[in-house]
Amino acid sequence: MLKVGLVGFGFMGRMNFDHYVKLNEDGYPITLTAVCDPRIEELKGQKANGNMTTAREVYDLSAYHLYRDLEDMLANEELDAVSLAVPTYLHAEMACSLMERGYHVFCEKPMARHSAEALKMAETAVRTGKKLMVGHCLRFWPAYEYLKEKIESGEFGQVTAGYFYRGSGAPKGWLVNDELSGGCMMDMHVHDTDMIQHLFGKPDKVSALGRNVLPGSGYDIVSSHYHYKDGKVINAQADWTLEGDFGFYMGYRVNFERGNIVFDGSTVRVNPNSQPGFRAYLSPHTGYYRELVYFLDAVLQDKPVSVCAPESTAQSIEIIEAEMESARHEGAWVTLF
């Protein structure tokens, strides 16, 4: 039985918690034994705020060992793996320290606040031989997996264009501090930048326009272009200033030589040029569930983390940094090496 500890009990910590519980109920040989957060006594009785719904509003944690300090948890628990759902600026130091001490690590996205830290995390995983996986859930989200499958199969020919979008209201706390989170570009837009890299490889250069709306939060609205030598037109946009009743939305439209595929946040519609369109069948499990299955299987079966390799997710941070540089120069193209 693989023993897991969870660090961080905010919105994404609870999302991790929900899916570890579900995996255990589904018969996976894992058990979540401990939860750690400096504010655990306060948080366990509060609702989580995020752009998706957690399984519960208030959590009963009486069956778990609770800690306010990570070192206390490590000293008192016999853990095999640790899930990090802590603020971005803590990812690198915590993940590297845990791997150095023999723990496998699942770390929420973005990988780190800076690409140099992300590269250090990837290097530490190689040197220690421990599994490190970053929770870029779109790589496991059924709607995006379907798209990747169709791109790789060539069923509709080559991709000619792609548009990716996500938006919500503004988050709170450290997330709207640019120095700590990297703002909308690093926290929200990174999902689509990472997916574009996952689908099409590293772009040759990027051009981005960004706008700051919330004081001190960095770029809150962004539109980025990704240049590829084959000429396909790829754009991604993100906006976390959509208040009122907007809620949350993510989606894509990808054009092929012989059709197009559109995801509206819930349904994938496939529109071949020469025959009637249809709705794609998708797995009922979310990317949150499926990414943890993949990580745990890698640990239990000692398999490489290849779908979401640390070297690849570190590269996504490098691309975001190039987009930030472009935005600072009013959309000037920035070459990636």
UniProtKB/TrEMBL annotation:
The lineage of its organism: Bacteria, Bacillati, Bacillota, Bacilli, Bacillales. Residues 2-136 form the Gfo/Idh/MocA-like oxidoreductase N-terminal domain. SUPFAM superfamilies: Glyceraldehyde-3-phosphate dehydrogenase-like, C-terminal domain, NAD(P)-binding Rossmann-fold domains. The keyword Oxidoreductase applies. Residues 144-261 form the GFO/IDH/MocA-like oxidoreductase domain. Keywords: Oxidoreductase. This is Gfo/Idh/MocA family oxidoreductase. Transmembrane segments: none annotated. The keyword Transmembrane does not apply. It comes from Paenibacillus rhizophilus. It comes from the Bacteria. InterPro entries: Gfo/Idh/MocA-like_OxRdtase_N, Gfo/Idh/MocA_oxidrdct_glycsds, GFO_IDH_MocA-like_dom, NAD(P)-bd_dom_sf.
